[in-house]
Hints:
Helix 1 crosses helix 4 (67-83), helix 3 packs across helix 4 and helix 4 (67-83) runs parallel beside helix 6. By secondary structure, the protein is an alpha/beta fold. Helix 8 links the parallel strand 4 and strand 5 (179-182). The chain is built from nine helices and six strands; from the N terminus they run βαααααβαβαβαββα.
Amino acid sequence: MTALAAVLWDMDGTLVDTEPLWMAAEGRIAAEHGKVWTEQDGLDLVGSALEVSGEIIRTKLDLPLTSAEIVDRLVTEVAAGLAGGDASWRPGAVELVKALDAEGVPQALVTMSYVPLAKVVADQLPFAAVVTGDAVTHGKPHPEPYETAARMLGVDPAACVAVEDSSTGATSANAAGCHVLAVPNMVAVPQAAQRTHRTTLAGMTPDDLRALLA
């Protein structure tokens, strides 16, 4: 069995169910300007870099705001929701993080959310490294976020399992050389090489992740 060098975790929709918070914040911005933001509009942005999402929202709704202003507003609202306990942990996620930590497996958080949001989650879990969307030049689906996390941990991406819930994130991790454990939440994740699908993390163990690299 191949040694598991590290596990790299997406955050939104994978560790914690924040997607409803993002979509609600997007909807409020649209409503304040007399525009309509549909559920599908929100789903289309799942996993995207925030600056990309901000520009899409600005353009699609023809808003009198910059993309940076839109992102700032979204981050503020979602961070408040996280801090207020308005998002729940995904089934089995925290248990698997803690089991990996108990076995000494390094772990990193790799999220396109910005520091104020990532910190709320990272402060509660034993991550050895954190990569956020405001710390990389190219966001997901570019491989940079996962390459950065592996480099910070001093490991080969090919010996890592990345846990993702979106096609955008899975593409990023695969491009970096990781094996992806895809656990879809609100959007589908296509089948691909070096990608394993599960419906839930509940009951999964560190050995289950090691088996993915066999």
